[in-house]
Amino acid sequence: MQALNRLCQQIKPRDHKIEEEIKTAWGAEKTSYGKLVDMVAQYGSCLGAVNPPVPKPCMVIASADHGIVKMGVSAYPQSTTIGMTTNYLIPKGAGANALANYCGASMVVVDMGINADMSQVPGLRHCKIRKGTRNFLREPAMTEEEAEKAIMVGVTIAQEEVKKGHTVFLVGEMGIANTTAAAVMTALFSGLSAKEATGRGSNISDERLKVKTQVVAQALEKYKDIGSEDGFHILQCVGGYEFACLVGVILGAAAQGAMTIIDGFNTTACALVAHTMAPACMDYVMASHLSAEKAHIDALKTLGLTAYVDLKLCLGEASGGAIQAGMLEMAVRIYQALQKKEG
Amino acid sequence: MINQEKLVTYLQAKQIQIPKPSKKAERACRERVDNLTKPIYSLAQLEVIAVRLAGLLHTPKPNHLSMGGVLFMGEKEVPALATKAVLQALQATYQTCLITKEQEEELSWEDAYELGKAEAIKAKKAGLQIVALGANRIDRESKAFIVMTAFVLELVALGLPVVFDTLLTGQAVEIATRAYPDLKAYAFASIGETAKQKKAQAEQMKTLGLMPYLFYDIDRGQGLGAALGLSLIDASLHMLNDMKTFGEASVTVAEDGPGNGRQDGR
């Protein structure tokens, strides 16, 4: 945990002086631009630049399988994790690909724990910790060592991609049954009941939702003694390897002065973990959309964040984050146009 | 002062034909969207936008659209730098129509209507396929408002969808829709209004059967919100054109829920 603790200590608050300079630079009519001003100010202050460049986004999609899938909580079989991860890299026909194209993001796709041999998939980063987490109703999903290792994978990805010039990370995930894990996590962080925290995920039937809600309730009972301030152990006990990776991306990006735009329910659960490990990292986190997953609004509230976009999305894969990235780019271009005029 | 009811009656007397969207294209688009590699309906309003555009453009899979912003300005020219920056980023054109106070005094209702119609024809001749509507210093009670409303009506008559943003541009759409209810199919919302206008916008959205998607508390007009709305149109078209179906990508379809059966592995 030493490397991880050191990293968390490296994360400093963003430069609020630059933030105020940017806000002032919008001019006398700045209030008419609303939150576009705050978005550019946050982005510029993360980078330490009064005149920040147009964002260069990197979409990180982490994939992994979940032992809890055996309880029958998803609309899709576990093999869909394999198919979709391959889809990101070979047919390139997933929502993540389409919306990465929309906002001009490059993509990093990483196997953090898919329950299959993925060695034949070109372009996939192979960082498999284990072939899926354990069934958290029986035992913790991960060991502490596995959780830490998975976080550090994300940290390394962030470090490498910042070196390539990326200024914003869009975090997304793929893992059948992972909204069950996110529901338990969110409930432990936000004090929600199983019914309040459990949504339809991959658009499951009413019968399957009943099963899922029961699974979440049992998990909340089993892990009720983990405090909401102990994000690492919440992640370790009921999270996923892909979630851990994205926690690492958030922390790693913050340590490098890069921003992360979170997506929906699952990545907000990752942000809740990162927040407990290094509260200052939230200076570098921007919300995006309000997921149709019902407990997302509570998760955002717990972090003190408000969504900017509401398209009723419920996909994950950084889809909402990509929309917000597109809007951030527009906001920066507007700011640049106004500066040019003033200059 | 413009009387709303009189304006509706005046517009109705024009007997404009609003082209009907193609239900066949909408159905084909919806079938494809439902079979894209995602849980069914999970891209929600992006899917709705794509299906609506398919119907309006009479093609199941509309691709890149030629976009433009049209800004109606009352009193004087404004640079609208923010709107222009967004339109430029989208490779969209920018068209303006200035109606000064002096010009307004000379305009009859018929003149105002013809002015709006001319701007619609100009947009169509420029090859535009969708327009972001903007307004700056247009008085709701003025003849400039008639110009803008006529523009909306004639634009839709030419088969072009329109993205609007503020309460004011929404009112132009609303009046045109009251005269011709079929016009509703061509209207796309974009940004949520600020707190002081939220309630009024909610009523307007209810009337039009629409919802705003972007919440940045922008209080600027000038078509800035509508231009950002064009970006969402772009996102929707990326979804429709870049995503593959379960069959095309060799991914297993849903075994449960509404996706089961509807997603047929094509």
Written description of the protein model:
The complex is a heterodimer of chains A (343) and B (266). Chain A is of the alpha/beta class and 343 residues long. Chain A has helices at 2-10, 16-25, 35-47, 79-89, 95-103, 144-163, 178-190, 194-197, 206-222, 231-238, 241-255, 265-277, 296-303, 319-342; strands at residues 57-64, 106-113, 125-126, 168-174, 259-261, 285-286. In chain A, strands 3-2-1-4-5-6 form a 6-stranded parallel beta sheet, with helices on both faces. Chain A is globular. The mean pLDDT of chain A is 96. By secondary structure, chain B is of the alpha/beta class. In chain B, β1 (67-74), α4 (81-89) and β2 (93-99) form a beta-alpha-beta unit. The longest helix of chain B is centred in the C-terminal third of the chain and has 19 residues, at 224-242. The radius of gyration of chain B is 19 Å and the shape is elongated. Chains A and B meet through α3, α4, α5 and α14 of A and α3, α4 and α10 of B.
